[in-house]
# Entry
Amino acid sequence: MIKIAPSILSADFANLERDIHKIADADYVHVDVMDGRFVPNISIGIPVVRDIRRVTDLPLDVHLMIQEPVRYVEQFCDAGADLVSIHVESDMPENIQSAIHKIHAKGKKAGIVLKPKTPAECALPYLSQVELILVMTVEPGFGGQKFMADMMPKVRTLRQWIDRDNPGCELEVDGGVAPDTCRQCIDAGANVLVAGSAVYQAQDIPARIRQLRG
Ligand code: DX5
Ligand code: ZN
# Structure
């Protein structure tokens, strides 16, 4: 069963509760956190996660696009994140490892994220420890970008490794996922699809979520 994680980056932040209720049929709320350093954009942070937690029972899938996330992962867990994902490019390996431990010590799920230019091999040191691997299908930082179909071989490779070494691990894709690109992601082995603009620009959001499930 394919899961859909709408990104609230494409929601109306002045009407966030309303826009979160519009995605009640989804599987996760995907929360994009940007610090203006790891990516050239600034979005939302810990207080917003805490307030979202109060208005939905959906699991919160928090995607940290921040430098040295080990500094903040515990605060995101305490704010109500169910799953906290960190970029492998965002710090030294020992700090990535430490961040994963801190997330687990809080009783939450940990994910690692690969930017488009980061090879699948960079996930290997963490593959057996994490609950999710996220393959970016755009350069992180902005919603509404064009889907990078050339990431599909990386998704296929990771699907093979996950099935072999950690079959419970989820494989997520993020960026440019829409009705015309979701099938490729599913065929390559992704089981969680993030979609921002494709969900929030739809006239009928529940129908769009059904459509993205493939
Ligand atoms: C990009 C974010 C994505 C983004 C996806 O840096 O991580 O989650 O919101 O938006 P769409 O689906 O519009 O590409
Ligand atoms: Zn994201």
